[in-house]
Amino acid sequence: MHLQFxxxxxxxxxxxxxxxxxxxxxxxxFDNIAPYYDFLNRFLSLGIDKKWRTQxxxxxxxxxxxxxxxxxxxxxxxxxxxxKTFEQAKVIGVDISAKMLEVGKKKIEKSSLxxxxxxxxxxSQNLSFDDNTFxxxxxxxxxxxxxxxxxxxxxxxxxxxxxxxxxxxxFSRPTVFPLKQLFNFYFKNILPTIGKLTSKDPxxxxxxxxxxxxxxxxxxxxxxxDRVGFKNSTCTRLxxxxxxxxxxxx
Length: 250
Prior knowledge:
The chain is α/β, with parallel strands linked by helices. Helix content is 42%, strand content 20%.
């Protein structure tokens, strides 16, 4: 008897497996977990996610930090940190989840950065900005949620200035024993259980594991970036390959 393994594309992995599009399901998922999102990020990653975001932001070229777009901004962590780091930067964060943005806007009010950071509803595959608008675009843990990965990347390239900088922070899969086995066990079993008890959405953190497994990480994602026309793409592995930072230029 032969066993047949089916490898799903990232576009085929959805939170709820219902008749809605992936975009609609992702929007509903993040609306559901918005009140718990920041706490769970810190708790489930043991706080390492803050270090990963700081490392990504440190790669922004200070000479090209004027207009910055943060795609899939969520509750605004990256946008706020960019605003604190680059005092001259004007930052726009877009996300499809209104509930996540509500949390982010409250955080911005407390940070006194409201004059330089603006959050708005927006879809990565249909951005409302003119061509060649932004010096830098950042995406933290968002590209694997795109319904059509290449379409989203092309749209970001459209609104990026010539030679503008793209920085993507995303989960990746460790390949070395025993990190690979520990990573898979934690993401597949421990994380969804904690997420279910805390966020009241049992599907959200199961989807996290599945979406990471389906995402074309490492060289595969660099190949996608090259295919849509980005150049000088690089990948930097973080914490034994649990996350990766990708850098590209338009």
